[in-house]
């Protein structure tokens, strides 16, 4: 990174991202994965891992509810559509690009 980002700015940007994702239900996880190689569930996993590494306690379900704005199972029922072969292919191709960044 060429410029440092303060913790306060990072936290504000993160909250805005979460709010944006909670509003944009039409941006489905599989499509986010296909385009960017991460989705709401990834973000929730990162939050859970960071919380637990910082001596906090957060479960996967708690983290996903925090990111989705509701239990993940409820979000799936309301907003998730079929994972077509084309969407799955795009997601797999995108995820393969993540190997060098993790």
Describe this structure in words.
By secondary structure, the chain is mainly α. Helices cover 67% and strands 0% of the residues. Helix 3 (40-53) packs across helix 4 (60-68). The longest helix has 17 residues, at 7-23. The model has no long low-confidence stretch (mean pLDDT 93).
In short:
The chain is mostly helical and 102 residues long. It is 67% helix and 0% strand. The chain has a single domain (28-100), classed as SMc04008-like (SMc04008-like fold, Orthogonal Bundle), CATH 1.10.3340.10.
Which helices and strands appear, and what pairs or packs with what?
Blueprint lengths: L6 H17 L5 H8 L3 H14 L6 H9 L3 H8 L5 H12 L6
Helix pairs in contact: 2-6, 3-4
* Mass-distribution shape: globular
Question: What distance lies between the first and last C-alpha atoms, to the nearest angstrom?
Answer: 15 Å
Low-confidence stretches: none
- Order of helical and strand elements: HHHHHH
How many structural domains are formed by the residues? 1
CATH class: Mainly Alpha
Largest sheet: none
Number of E strands = 0
Structural class: mainly alpha
């Amino acid at each position: 990174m060429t410029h440092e980002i303060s913790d306060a700015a990072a936290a504000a940007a993160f909250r805005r991202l979460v709010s944006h994702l909670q509003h944009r239900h039409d941006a489905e996880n599989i499509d986010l994965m296909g385009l960017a190689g991460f989705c709401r569930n990834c973000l929730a996993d990162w939050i859970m891992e960071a919380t637990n590494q910082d001596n906090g306690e957060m479960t996967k379900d708690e983290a996903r509810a925090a990111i989705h704005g509701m239990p993940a199972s409820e979000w799936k029922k309301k907003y998730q559509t079929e994972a077509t072969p084309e969407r799955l292919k795009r997601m797999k191709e995108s995820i393969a690009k993540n190997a060098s960044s993790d």
